[in-house]
């Protein structure tokens, strides 16, 4: 029996491996970690490509070159193509046996691969069969074809999904496929050349399927010039593709592996001729939206065709027109993640979903290690209202500045202040620079450069909810004794994709006990999930303690407080500014009395 441990990021996987090393089982268990080529490839010629897509394509091309060169050893006149020097089966097998003798994180696996001159990416995949614990990213586990290509078998095994508050969103993102105009044009061009070159060698059935794919691509390009949302069936009918059997086309693509034949295929036809032939869109003065680079775009388009085989109610087709056809896109939006997760639940012996903000279990810290205060007013009595309409009010921004300055005076350690958006953070920062608030903050908290004084005063970090600092980054101990949340980070209600999701939920699920529709509940949950993750940055182990300051009058509503994790909401206190400062002062005496070390962590957005 194996345990598959899944998390969202590679850094979280490394943290998990470190915890295994600390445990009593670290010396007796065989562990392997899977990661992307971008993290594990040691071929410098491939790594310098930077783009994950190009790295994947180049790796597959080098393997193809190796196979083709080995079959043509008897033809000395033909120049052999370059192959990856690290992809050697004997070395990979030796690497596999070595990594299972000791628990190693991703960095150590890569370093070992360099020492043994062996590919860590494939070496770790070879080790799956013999490993007892396999740590892997979400994408590898939650995508069926990726899971199967890695040889991951769930039957009789246990799946643990950490940070599971991201689960539904991740499944939606993995199985939602977006194709850009440039990819459609390039795929059409390559396929046209392929047919011209090999028409006489292709069987009639294969020629029929390739012509059908060409027709599909041409219809997609015609409709990519619109901005519209379709159901799957309506889209197939509108584009005149409802009489084409997509299942047979996908089966042909899989058996023939036609997309892999285009890695080294010359791109003769100028793209602008194809673009002008189908649709003319005026070019903008400057194009900032670059489509992803891809050597064989047909591989990506195959994923889109597969998405079109989903049930009509489970997804939508979103056409997104831009000024330039190459960056216009057509996207399949998955609305029902249950259809993709069901197979994992059915196959595995047990599935465990875990997360610090999930029910029903509490947190590892004692109740008195966390002080959570919802603050509706500042020191002068000005209401803290950071709704979209009121957030730029000068009096409110000044009041927020007074609150932050007072917290800097009271809290001698690190403070992390989260804003609902980058635009609002920049606006507040500019206003405080002009009004002198930042100068007052700097008198207590260092912002940019290291200073010995910071060991006493700590530092303050301004960040954005949903950004890199709000999830996956630990501000344990004195790095973060206070987390301040300014406003509530509701997503853009006018987003077409969010609207479709809310309509889908309203149509398929009943209203809540309070009369709110399923779409409304989902919208609120998106906001509070982001809030909960930001709060959790400061509590990282059982002896940690911190203060959480919720700066918005809306946090005092019972309906909002009810969406906080159980271990937080039971002790949320609605206070005025004076009593709040007094309560926080008592908490912040602890590091001074106990002499805890204060470490500077200075980052400024």
UniProtKB/TrEMBL annotation:
Main location group: nucleus
Top-rank taxon, per record: Eukaryota
Residue span(s) of domain Helicase ATP-binding: 1-214
GO biological process, one term: nucleobase-containing compound metabolic process
One Pfam match: DEAD_2
CC annotations in GO: nucleus
SMART domains hit by this protein: DEXDc2, HELICc2
Subcellular location(s) of the protein: Nucleus
InterPro entries per the UniProt record, alphabetical: ATP-dep_Helicase_C, DinG/Rad3-like, Helic_SF1/SF2_ATP-bd_DinG/Rad3, Helicase-like_DEXD_c2, P-loop_NTPase, RAD3-like_helicase_DEAD, Rad3/Chl1-like
Cofactor entry: [4Fe-4S] cluster
Molecular function via GO: ATP binding; DNA binding; DNA helicase activity; hydrolase activity, acting on acid anhydrides, in phosphorus-containing anhydrides; iron-sulfur cluster binding; metal ion binding; RNA binding
Keyword annotations: ATP-binding, DNA-binding, Helicase, Hydrolase, Iron, Iron-sulfur, Isomerase, Metal-binding, Nucleotide-binding, Nucleus, RNA-binding
Family affiliation: Belongs to the DEAD box helicase family. DEAH subfamily. DDX11/CHL1 sub-subfamily.
Name used for this protein in its record: Helicase ATP-binding domain-containing protein
Native species: Octopus bimaculoides (California two-spotted octopus)
């Amino acid at each position: 029996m194996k345990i598959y441990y899944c998390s969202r990021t590679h850094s979280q996987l490394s943290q998990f491996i470190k915890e295994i090393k600390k445990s009593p089982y670290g010396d007796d268990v065989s562990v392997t970690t899977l990661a992307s080529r971008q993290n594990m490839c040691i071929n410098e010629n491939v790594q310098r490509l930077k783009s994950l897509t190009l790295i994947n394509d180049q790796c597959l091309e080098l393997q193809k070159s190796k196979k083709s060169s080995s079959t043509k050893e008897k033809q000395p006149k033909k120049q052999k193509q370059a192959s990856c020097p690290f992809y050697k089966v004997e070395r990979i097998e030796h690497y596999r046996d070595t990594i299972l003798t000791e628990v190693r994180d991703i960095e150590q696996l890569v370093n070992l691969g360099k020492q043994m001159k062996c590919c860590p990416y494939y070496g770790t995949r070879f080790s799956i069969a013999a490993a007892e614990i396999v740590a892997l990213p979400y994408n590898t586990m939650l995508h069926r074809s990726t899971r199967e290509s890695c040889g991951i078998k769930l039957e009789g095994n246990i799946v643990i999904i950490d940070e599971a508050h991201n689960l539904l969103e991740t499944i939606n993102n993995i199985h939602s496929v977006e194709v850009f105009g440039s990819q459609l044009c390039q795929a059409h061009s390559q396929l046209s050349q392929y047919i011209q070159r090999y028409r006489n060698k292709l069987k009639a059935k294969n020629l029929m399927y390739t012509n059908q794919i060409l027709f599909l691509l041409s219809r997609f390009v015609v409709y990519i010039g619109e901005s519209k949302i379709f159901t799957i069936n309506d889209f197939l009918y509108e584009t005149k593709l409802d009489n084409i059997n997509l299942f047979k086309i996908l089966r042909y693509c899989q058996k023939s592996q036609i997309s892999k034949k285009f890695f080294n295929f010359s791109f003769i036809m100028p793209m602008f001729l194809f673009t002008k032939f189908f649709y003319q869109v005026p070019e903008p003065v400057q194009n900032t939206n670059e489509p992803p680079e891809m050597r064989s775009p047909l591989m990506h388009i195959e994923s889109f065709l597969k998405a079109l085989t989903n049930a009509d109610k489970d997804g939508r087709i979103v056409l997104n027109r831009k000024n330039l056809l190459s960056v216009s896109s057509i996207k399949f939006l998955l609305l029902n993640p249950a259809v993709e997760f069901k197979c994992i639940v059915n196959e595995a012996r047990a599935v465990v979903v875990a997360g610090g903000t999930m029910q029903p279990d509490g947190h590892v810290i004692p109740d008195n290690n966390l002080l959570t205060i919802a603050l509706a007013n500042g020191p002068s009595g000005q209401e803290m209202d950071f709704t979209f309409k009121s957030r730029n009010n000068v009096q409110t921004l000044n009041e927020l500045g007074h609150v932050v300055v007072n917290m800097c005076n009271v809290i001698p350690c690190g403070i992390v202040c989260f804003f609902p958006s980058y635009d609002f953070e920049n606006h507040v920062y500019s206003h405080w620079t002009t009004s002198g608030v930042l100068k007052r903050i700097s008198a207590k908290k260092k912002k940019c450069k290291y200073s010995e004084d910071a060991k006493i005063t700590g530092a303050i970090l301004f960040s954005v909810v949903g950004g890199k600092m709000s999830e996956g980054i630990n501000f344990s101990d004195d790095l973060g004794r206070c987390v301040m949340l300014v406003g509530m980070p509701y997503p853009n209600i006018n987003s077409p994709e969010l609207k479709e999701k809310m309509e889908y939920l309203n149509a398929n699920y009943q209203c809540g006990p309070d009369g709110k529709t399923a779409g409304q509940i989902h919208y609120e949950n998106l906001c509070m999930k982001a809030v909960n993750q930001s709060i959790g940055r400061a509590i990282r182990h059982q002896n940690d303690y911190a203060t959480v300051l919720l700066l918005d009058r809306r946090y005092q509503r019972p309906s909002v407080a009810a969406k906080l994790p159980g271990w937080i909401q039971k002790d949320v206190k609605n206070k005025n500014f004076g009593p709040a400062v007094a309560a926080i002062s008592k908490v912040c005496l602890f590091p001074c009395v106990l002499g805890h070390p204060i470490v500077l962590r200075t980052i400024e957005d």
